[in-house]
Design goal:
Among the domains are: 93 residues, Rossmann fold (3-Layer(aba) Sandwich), CATH 3.40.50; 38 residues, no CATH class. The chain contains 7 helices and 7 strands; from the N terminus they run E-H-E-H-E-H-E-H-E-H-H-E-E-H. Strand 6 and strand 7 form a beta hairpin. Helix 4 crosses helix 7. It binds zinc ion (ZN).
């Protein structure tokens, strides 16, 4: 029988290990972290980027207001981080440049599930849905969906908001491999710090 691990959750919403416990974590990301936005969406997290909005020079004010009590603000800007903390906005400062290291930083603060999911559009953050059999002829009209994939019976997902079509091709395997590698690295680092 598998051991059941019961986490002590404190009043501030954190696990015993200090990570934030929140199944419905949502994020707003500054415009310096575009790739991180894409990867969080790939992991199924509701994530907006400053780049999704046309903003004037009051961008920081907007980000703080948009985050409010609902979203975690992710930024590379130390000054914005201080402002967020003073305003009671949950904030995560990213220090690394490489995307996998940035995701690793997120995992060190939050309970991020590193399993990719076909649930959210990486372009616009809307939820995507599976394409129905009677809609396949519509995909044939889109020249970015190869005909042979449709004939092979591959599953497709579509974003009704922006029209982007998704399928689990070689890029999907690549995403899996990179996330598995990150997971292994995090696990071995944890082992090293505990031993
Ligand atoms: Zn979309």
């Amino acid at each position: 029988m598998k051991d059941i691990i019961v986490f002590q959750i404190y009043e501030d919403g954190k696990y015993e290990d200090g990570k934030t416990q929140d199944q419905e974590m949502m994020f707003i990301v500054d415009r310096m972290l575009g790739r991180l936005t894409t990867w969080l969406r790939l992991l199924g997290y509701d994530t907006f980027s400053a780049s999704d909005f046309i903003l004037d020079d009051k961008e920081d004010d907007f980000l703080l207001k948009f985050a409010g009590q609902k979203r975690i603000l992710i930024t590379r800007d130390k000054t914005l981080r201080i402002r967020a903390e003073r305003s009671g906005v949950r904030v995560c400062l990213i220090n690394f440049d490489h995307i996998m290291e940035q995701l690793g930083e997120m995992v060190s603060h939050y309970d991020i599930d590193l399993e990719p999911k076909m649930t959210r559009c990486t372009l616009c953050n809307a939820l995507i849905r599976k394409v129905r059999a009677n809609e396949l002829c519509m995909l044939k009209r889109e020249d970015y969906v190869p005909d042979e994939l449709i004939e092979e019976g591959v599953d497709f997902w579509i974003c009704d908001s922006c029209g982007k079509v998704y399928w689990k091709g070689s890029h999907w395997e690549n995403i899996h491999k990179r996330l598995e590698k990150l997971h292994e690295k995090i696990s071995s680092d944890l082992y090293l710090t505990q031993s």
